[in-house]
Structure formats: structure tokens, C-alpha cells
Design a protein that fits this description.
97 residues; mainly alpha; two-stranded antiparallel ribbon
Amino acid sequence: MAQDKPTTVDEMQDLLAHLLTGAVGKTDAYWKKLIGPVSAMPIILHPKSNWRIVPKGKPVEIEAIEKAAAVVREAHPYVLSPRTNDSLKGAVTSHRE
């Protein structure tokens, strides 16, 4: 990651995977697959944190991902947000650019 603060959904996924690799083991690619895509939502509709994940895997893996997400969310609650009007129209609900 070129910067300290993740600003895109891809950078957020990278940070989560890197944290899990260091804490639990395995590879970044392994964790990225289980984390799944990071979705960005309009900040105006989600003021506390505008990103979410829907992890998959074994219960212990999901628990580790959710704990990592909670830690990261405290420090980095926001990623680039889709435009509110587009989201309300259904044009953008999550993205990977």
C-alpha cells in the first residue's frame, strides 16, 4: 500500500488481509478470498462507517475477519464513497474500480 490510510475498497481489503496474515498466518490472497469484496456506501447514509464486508469461511475464520474489521474500522471508518444520488437510484451499491 503506497499510503498509510486506505482510501479505496481495494486498499481496505489489502489492509484487512495484511493484518490477518500477520496475526493468524496463511497468505494475503487466502484472506482476501474469505474477506470478499469491500462495499462502499454513501457517507451521508452511513455516518459512523461507510464500508462493509460479508466474510465467509469457517466460523473461526469469520470471527478473525470480524475482529480485524472492528480494529481497522476504529482507525479507518471511511473509504471513497459513491455519490448519494446514484446509490439511491440503485446505480452504485458497491464498487471495485
